Amino acid sequence: MLKASLLVVTFFVATHCFSQAISDTDDSIPKKDTIVLATKDVGINIEKPSLKIYPNPAKNKVSLQVAGFETGMAKVRIMDDKGKVVREDDRLLNNGTDEINMFLQLQAGMYFISVSEKSKVVRKKLMVL
Predict the structure, then answer these.
(1) How much is the pTM?
(2) Which domains are delineated in the chain?
Protein backbone atom coordinates (compact mmCIF):
# COMPACT_ATOMS: atom_id res chain seq x y z
CA MET A 1 0.00 0.00 0.00
CA LEU A 2 2.85 2.34 0.84
CA LYS A 3 4.47 1.73 -2.56
CA ALA A 4 1.21 2.50 -4.37
CA SER A 5 0.71 5.77 -2.50
CA LEU A 6 4.33 6.85 -3.13
CA LEU A 7 3.87 6.08 -6.80
CA VAL A 8 0.72 8.22 -6.96
CA VAL A 9 2.41 11.11 -5.14
CA THR A 10 5.49 10.91 -7.41
CA PHE A 11 3.28 10.87 -10.51
CA PHE A 12 1.30 13.89 -9.25
CA VAL A 13 4.45 15.91 -8.45
CA ALA A 14 6.07 15.05 -11.78
CA THR A 15 3.02 15.96 -13.86
CA HIS A 16 2.35 19.15 -11.89
CA CYS A 17 5.95 20.44 -12.03
CA PHE A 18 6.69 19.64 -15.66
CA SER A 19 3.35 20.28 -17.33
CA GLN A 20 3.10 24.04 -16.98
CA ALA A 21 2.08 25.68 -20.22
CA ILE A 22 4.42 28.05 -21.99
CA SER A 23 2.70 31.28 -22.87
CA ASP A 24 3.15 33.02 -26.21
CA THR A 25 4.41 36.12 -24.43
CA ASP A 26 7.56 34.43 -23.10
CA ASP A 27 10.30 35.95 -25.30
CA SER A 28 13.16 34.07 -23.65
CA ILE A 29 12.21 30.86 -25.47
CA PRO A 30 12.53 30.89 -29.30
CA LYS A 31 9.36 30.17 -31.22
CA LYS A 32 9.03 27.00 -33.24
CA ASP A 33 9.96 28.60 -36.57
CA THR A 34 12.62 30.96 -35.19
CA ILE A 35 16.33 30.40 -35.85
CA VAL A 36 18.76 32.14 -33.55
CA LEU A 37 22.20 32.85 -35.03
CA ALA A 38 25.27 34.20 -33.28
CA THR A 39 26.84 36.80 -35.56
CA LYS A 40 29.57 38.19 -33.32
CA ASP A 41 32.94 38.23 -35.09
CA VAL A 42 35.49 36.47 -32.91
CA GLY A 43 38.44 36.75 -35.32
CA ILE A 44 38.49 33.14 -36.49
CA ASN A 45 39.86 32.54 -39.96
CA ILE A 46 37.85 29.70 -41.53
CA GLU A 47 39.45 29.92 -44.99
CA LYS A 48 41.00 26.65 -46.11
CA PRO A 49 44.81 26.98 -46.19
CA SER A 50 46.48 26.82 -49.59
CA LEU A 51 50.00 26.81 -51.00
CA LYS A 52 51.15 27.70 -54.52
CA ILE A 53 54.76 27.15 -55.60
CA TYR A 54 56.28 28.88 -58.60
CA PRO A 55 58.24 28.34 -60.69
CA ASN A 56 57.85 24.60 -60.48
CA PRO A 57 60.18 23.02 -61.58
CA ALA A 58 62.70 25.46 -60.11
CA LYS A 59 66.47 25.89 -60.15
CA ASN A 60 67.75 28.09 -57.35
CA LYS A 61 64.86 30.37 -56.34
CA VAL A 62 61.26 29.54 -55.50
CA SER A 63 58.31 31.64 -54.38
CA LEU A 64 55.62 30.27 -52.07
CA GLN A 65 52.23 31.92 -52.03
CA VAL A 66 50.32 30.97 -48.88
CA ALA A 67 46.73 31.80 -48.00
CA GLY A 68 44.27 30.86 -45.28
CA PHE A 69 46.71 31.08 -42.38
CA GLU A 70 46.55 33.27 -39.30
CA THR A 71 48.92 36.16 -38.70
CA GLY A 72 52.01 34.94 -36.87
CA MET A 73 54.86 32.49 -37.21
CA ALA A 74 54.67 29.60 -39.68
CA LYS A 75 57.14 26.78 -40.17
CA VAL A 76 58.37 26.06 -43.71
CA ARG A 77 59.96 22.64 -44.24
CA ILE A 78 61.59 21.21 -47.33
CA MET A 79 61.89 17.41 -47.34
CA ASP A 80 63.52 15.11 -49.86
CA ASP A 81 61.72 12.17 -51.47
CA LYS A 82 62.67 9.93 -48.52
CA GLY A 83 61.10 12.30 -45.95
CA LYS A 84 64.36 13.72 -44.59
CA VAL A 85 64.11 17.41 -43.68
CA VAL A 86 66.75 19.25 -45.71
CA ARG A 87 65.72 22.76 -44.69
CA GLU A 88 63.48 24.27 -42.04
CA ASP A 89 62.66 27.97 -41.62
CA ASP A 90 60.34 29.97 -39.39
CA ARG A 91 58.63 32.74 -41.32
CA LEU A 92 56.39 35.58 -40.16
CA LEU A 93 53.05 35.79 -41.93
CA ASN A 94 51.77 39.35 -41.81
CA ASN A 95 48.14 38.85 -42.75
CA GLY A 96 47.75 35.14 -43.43
CA THR A 97 48.09 35.60 -47.20
CA ASP A 98 51.74 36.15 -47.98
CA GLU A 99 54.47 35.44 -50.48
CA ILE A 100 57.64 33.76 -49.23
CA ASN A 101 60.77 33.87 -51.41
CA MET A 102 63.40 31.21 -50.84
CA PHE A 103 66.82 30.68 -52.37
CA LEU A 104 67.58 26.99 -52.79
CA GLN A 105 70.88 25.18 -52.77
CA LEU A 106 69.49 21.73 -53.45
CA GLN A 107 70.52 18.94 -55.78
CA ALA A 108 68.21 18.11 -58.66
CA GLY A 109 65.32 15.90 -57.64
CA MET A 110 61.87 15.77 -56.12
CA TYR A 111 61.15 17.56 -52.81
CA PHE A 112 58.11 18.30 -50.70
CA ILE A 113 57.42 21.70 -49.15
CA SER A 114 55.12 22.02 -46.15
CA VAL A 115 53.90 25.18 -44.46
CA SER A 116 52.36 24.74 -41.02
CA GLU A 117 51.05 26.72 -38.10
CA LYS A 118 49.12 25.49 -35.05
CA SER A 119 46.65 23.02 -36.58
CA LYS A 120 46.93 23.97 -40.27
CA VAL A 121 49.33 22.20 -42.64
CA VAL A 122 49.66 22.32 -46.43
CA ARG A 123 52.06 20.26 -48.55
CA LYS A 124 53.08 20.48 -52.18
CA LYS A 125 55.59 18.75 -54.44
CA LEU A 126 58.56 20.68 -55.83
CA MET A 127 60.86 19.59 -58.64
CA VAL A 128 64.39 21.03 -58.59
CA LEU A 129 66.37 21.00 -61.86
Answers:
(1) 0.62
(2) 50-128 (2.60.40.3080)
